[in-house]
Amino acid sequence: MADVTVDRKRRRRPEISAFQWLTLALVAAFIIVPFYTTVLGGFKSIGELRTNPFGLPASWDPANFTGIIFETGLFRSLWNSLFIALSTVVLSVLIASMAAFALAHIRFFGSKFIMSFFMLGLLFPASTAILPLFIKLRDLGLLDTHLGIIIAQVAFSLAFSIVLFHSFFKRLPTELIDAARMDNCGYLKIYWYITLPLSLPIIATVGVFAFVGSWNSFLLPLIVLNTDTNYTWPLGIMQFQGQYGSDWPKILAYLTLTILPAVGFFLLAQRYIISGLTGGAVKG
Amino acid sequence: MTTIAPSVAVPMPRRARRYMDRKSLVPLLLFIPPALILFVVLVVLPMIDAASFSVFDWTGYGPMTDFVGLKNYEDVLRHRHFGTAVRNSLLVIAISLLVQLPLAMWVSLALVEKRVSVNIIRTLFFLPYMLAEIAAGLIWKFVYDGNYGILPTIGDALGTDMPFVLGDKFWVMPAIMLVIVWKYFGFHMMIYIAGLQSIPTEVIEAARLDGVKKWQIVRHIKLPMIWGSIVISVFFSIIGALQLFDLVIPLSNGGPNNSSHTIVSFLYQFGILRMKLGFGGAVSVMLFIACVVITVVYRRLLFSREVD
Question: How far, in Å, CA of B87 to CA of A69, rounded?
C-alpha cells in the first residue's frame, strides 16, 4: 500500500487523490484494452492487426461478421445456450424456492438436518464430481441431451439458491403467514400467493446467478455434448477457434458477437448480481 | 434419515396439531422431494461414486470388479504432471492473495463513494468477472499472440522481442495469472466495497476531525471493520483457484508439455479424456478432501474470529 496522505480536513467528503486517480486510470486501461482491440479487430485484416493494433480499422467491412452469422452455427449455439440457461433458471427458482419455503415455514422433524444436508452442497463444486456425473448421466441416458445439462446445473446450483431463498423467507414477516393460516389457507396457496410475490428481488438474484452460471459454463457441456448441432456457444467458439487457428480477425469477430449480448445483459442485471454477492449470499 | 413427521417437540392443542398433520404433510411431500432427489442423485451420489471408482480399475463399462485398493492414488501421486498441477494451483492461490486481493482493496478504497463517475468505473472493473471464462481466455490468447497480438506491439514500443508467452514453459503461468487477476479482481473489489459502505460514516468523520491521517484511518478503522469481507474473499480465492479450468483451456490447454495444468485440467486430460475412471476418481476425491479440509479449517480459524 502506498502512503497517500492528502490532508483535506476542511473537506466534507473524502476526495480521490491524484495518485489514486492515476492507478485507477492504469487499471481501467488494463481492463479496456483487450476488449477494445477485440471488438475492433473483427473489422481489420490480419496484417492490420499488427501494423495498427490500437487505431480504427481502415475499412468498416463487416464481411467477417456477416460470414459468421450466415455460415456458422453461431445462432444455433446461442439458441442452445439460451434454452439451457432459461430452463435452468425456471427449474432452479421453482425447486429451490419450494424446498426453502418448506424448510423456512413448516415445522417438521428433521428440517434442520435437511437444511444442513443441502448446505453441504456448498462444498461440492461441480468440477470435483464431473467424472461420476458423466457416468450418472450416461446411465440415465442423458448424454448429448440438453436435459442432462439442465438437471445437472440445477442440482449443483441448489445449495446456493436454497441458502439465498431460505434466508430471505426467514426475514419475511411471519404475521402474514400466520394470518393466512388462521384463514385456513393451505401452505400451497401461501407459497404461491403470498411468499413468491413478496420475493421478487431474491427470485431475480437467484435467477440471474443461475442464468449467468449456465450461460458461461464450459466443462459440463464439454463432457456431456458431442453433436455439433447441440453445442452451446462456448463449445461452438472453441470449435471455431480450432478450425481457424490463427485467422484472428475471424475469431475476434466471433468473440465480439458472443460478448456483446453478454455485456448488454450484464449492464441490465448488474443490480441483482451485486446484491446477491453482497447480501445474504456470501455466507461461509 | 428423512422421515417426515409433524413436530412433537412443541406441545400443541389437539386441534392445532391435527391442522399441522392435515395441512403440512401434503406440501412437505410436494416441496422437499424434488430438490432432495435432484441433489442426492446428481450431487451426493456422484461424489460417493468417485470414491468407489477410485479404488477400482475401471474403464466405465461393465461391472466394477477389479479392486486395486489405493493403487490409483499412488498412480496419481507418482504421475509426472500431478506435482506440476498442484504447484500451479498453489501458485494461483499465492498470486491471488498477494496481487489480486491487495489490488482489489486498493481500488475499492478509492471507489466507495456513491457518485456516477465512480459507479461507471466500478461497473467497468466488474465486467470481466461476468464474462465467460472461455471468452476471456480467447481474448487474452489474442493479446498474447506472438505474431498478431498486443504483446508484440508492446515489445516494439520497448524495442525488444517479446517471447511467445503461451508457448513458453517459464512464461505460461505468469501469463495465465495476469488473466486471472484481470478477470476476478473486480469480484473481490465488489465484496470490499460492500463492506466499506457498511461502515458508519460518523466513525470515519470523527477520526478525520481528530486529525487522523488517511492511511491510518485505512489501517486502524477501515481494514479491521471489513475483516469479514476480507475473510470471505480470501476463501473464494482459494476455492476458486482449486477449481480453475475453463480459463486454462483456451489459453494454453495445459501446455506446453503439460506445464500449465491446474488440478481440474489435469483431471480432464488424464482421467476423463482417457476414460481412466479410477485414476480420475482418485484425483476427484483428493480435490474434494482438499476443499472440505480448507473449508472446515477456515471456518474454525476465521469465520468465528471476532473483530478486536
Answer: 42
Contact B267, B278 (CB under 8 A): no
**What are phi and psi for residue B56, nearest 5 degrees?**
-120, 160
A156 interaction partners in chain B (CB closer than 8 Å): 42-43
Closest B-chain CA to A95:
B35
Q: Do B24 and A108 touch (CB under 8 A)?
A: yes
Instruction: Name the packing angle between helices B172-197 and B82-95 (round to 10°).
Output: 40
Mutation choice for A interface testing from B42, B127, B238 by most A CBs within 10 A: B42
SS3 letters across chain B: CCCCCECCCCCCCHHHHHHHHHHHHHHHHHHHHHHHHHHHHHHHHHHHHHHHHCCECCCCCCCCCCECCCHHHHHHHHCCCHHHHHHHHHHHHHHHHHHHHHHHHHHHHHCCCCCHHHHHHHHHHHHHHHCCHHHHHHHHHHHHCCCCCHHHHHHHHHCCCCCCHHHCCCCHHHHHHHHHHHHHHHHHHHHHHHHHHCCCHHHHHHHHHCCCCHHHHHHHHHHHHCHHHHHHHHHHHHHHHHHCCCCHHHHCCCCCCCCCCCHHHHHHHHHHCCCCHHHHHHHHHHHHHHHHHHHHHHHHHHHCCCCC
CA A49, A53, A59, A60 torsion-angle sign: positive
For the entire predicted model, the pTM comes to 0.88
A-B interface: how many C-beta pairs under 8 angstroms?
305
Q: Which residues contact A55 (CB under 8 A, 6 or more apart)?
A: none
Q: Which residues pair with B6 in a beta bridge?
A: A108
Q: Is A134 on the interface with B (CB under 8 A)?
A: yes
CA–CA distance, B95 with B200 (Å, rounded to integer): 32
CA gap A99, A117 in Å, rounded: 12
Q: What is the pLDDT along chain B (308 residues), one digit of tens a residue?
A: 444 444 444 444 444 444 455 567 778 889 999 999 999 999 999 989 889 989 998 877 888 888 898 999 999 999 999 999 999 999 999 999 999 999 999 999 999 888 888 889 999 999 999 999 999 999 999 999 988 999 998 898 888 888 899 999 999 999 999 999 999 999 999 999 989 988 898 998 899 899 888 888 889 999 999 998 899 899 989 989 999 999 999 999 998 999 999 999 999 999 989 888 899 999 999 998 998 899 888 888 876 654 43
| φ, ψ at B54 (rounded to 5°) | -70, -15
Which residue type does A133 have? Answer: L
C-alpha B234: how far from chain center: 10
* B234-293 residues touching A, CB cutoff 8 A: 235, 239, 243, 245-246, 249-250, 264, 267-268, 271-272, 277, 280-281, 284, 287-288, 291-292
The alpha carbon of residue A92 is apart from the nearest alpha carbon of chain B, in Å, by 9
